[in-house]
Every structure is written in C-alpha cells, then in structure tokens.
C-alpha cells in the first residue's frame, strides 16, 4: 500500500476526540485531500459499518452477549477496512482512524474477559494482517478517564462508558500489554497532561512518521 495508516487509541476519557480534532486541523493544510479521517466502529461513508456501530453502542442493548459484541465489532471492522481504508491507502492517502483492532482486543478481550487471544483470532480473520504503521496511544488511568466522562460529557455516554471501574482497569491492562508487545508501533502519550501538552506531544510523536515539520 502506498499510503500511511495511523490509528488513535486510548481508554474512555483519554481525550481522543479533542486531540484528533487539533491534529487534523494542523494536518489538513499540509496534506489537503490526501488526509482521510475515519472512525470505528463505523467508518467514513460506510453505511453497513455505521449500522453496526448504532447496534453495538446503543445503551438499550444491555442484553447483548459479549461474544456477539466482539463478532459485531470484527464485522464492522472488516467492512470499514475493505470499503474505506484499503481504497484510501491505495490512493496514497494518509488514513487516520479513531480506534482500530487494538480497541477490540482491549475492550472485548480484556474488559469483557473473553480473552485477548480469542479476540485477536476473530480480528485476524477480519483484517488479514492489515495493521497501522503507527498507533497513537493516549494513556490515562481508568479512574481519571471515568471522572472526565462524568464531569464533561454526560450527554454522550454510551454502553461502554457505564461499565464498572474494574472493566476499565482490565481495558487499560490489555492496552499496556499490547504496547509492550509492539513498542515500535505504539506511540505512548501521557493523556493526563493539559490538552495543549497532549496535542504537542502527539504532534511530535507523529512528526517522523509523516515527515512533519514544526
């Protein structure tokens, strides 16, 4: 693939939306139409993946089986990959996705306790080895992230946000294990800093990946 594939990851409350918004605003003048911002579950211009997103994030679907959830995320990811990501990379674009396969391994494998190996296997079938060049991981303690959610975005809480602290602790542990296994791909950012510092550190971490200048 000619393009560059970057994912943004982090526990709930890490500030991904704010950081991504700032990074994209700085990248847009540099990359222009070569920049594609997308997200998971779902995806830019992806009707099927977005329909699955609505299903898995609906707070009303509390009876959803955890393996059903993992399979739905993998199905959404497959559609996102073949319909959105791969064509953009083939067109030499820089693709930035808000969450990718690491999220499933951390949230379903770790948080839901399905097992990281089992969720990795499900997603290996879906992505066929297509991993990001770099993954920006916004690191924050679960209790700090949950406090941010409760104080800043109560009107946007989804089905995963309302899980117990122990769930989010398992998510964090799974993310850290993934980063330890693949330290060259993971760009770890301290997300407990003030927003300006997080944005500056993220830009600096991406600079060599995208050949950026200050």
From TrEMBL:
Catalytic activity: dTMP + ATP = dTDP + ADP
Pfam families: Thymidylate_kin
Protein EC: 2.7.4.9
UniProt GO MF annotations: ATP binding; dTMP kinase activity
Positions bound to ATP: 10-17
Keywords of the record: ATP-binding, Kinase, Nucleotide biosynthesis, Nucleotide-binding, Transferase
Protein name as it appears in the record: Thymidylate kinase
Natural source organism: Weissella cibaria
């Amino acid at each position: 693939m000619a393009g560059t594939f970057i994912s943004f990851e982090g526990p709930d409350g890490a500030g991904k939306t704010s950081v991504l918004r700032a990074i994209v605003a700085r990248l847009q003048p540099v990359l222009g139409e070569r920049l594609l911002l997308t997200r998971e579950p779902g995806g830019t211009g992806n009707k099927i993946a977005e329909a699955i997103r609505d299903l898995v994030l609906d707070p009303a679907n509390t009876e959803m089986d955890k393996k059903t959830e993992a399979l739905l995320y993998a199905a959404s990811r497959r559609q996102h990959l073949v319909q959105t990501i791969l064509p953009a990379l083939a067109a030499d674009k820089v693709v930035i996705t808000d969450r990718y396969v690491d999220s499933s391994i951390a949230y379903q494998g770790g948080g839901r306790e399905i097992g990281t190996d089992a969720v990795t296997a499900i997603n290996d079938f879906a992505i066929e080895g297509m991993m990001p060049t770099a993954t920006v991981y916004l690191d924050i303690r679960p209790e700090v992230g949950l406090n941010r959610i409760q104080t800043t975005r109560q009107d946007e809480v989804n089905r995963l946000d309302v899980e117990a602290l122990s769930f989010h602790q398992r998510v964090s542990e799974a993310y850290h294990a993934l980063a330890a296994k693949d330290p060259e791909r993971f760009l770890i950012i301290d997300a407990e800093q003030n927003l300006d510092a997080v944005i500056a550190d993220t830009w600096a971490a991406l600079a060599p990946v995208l050949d950026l200048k200050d």
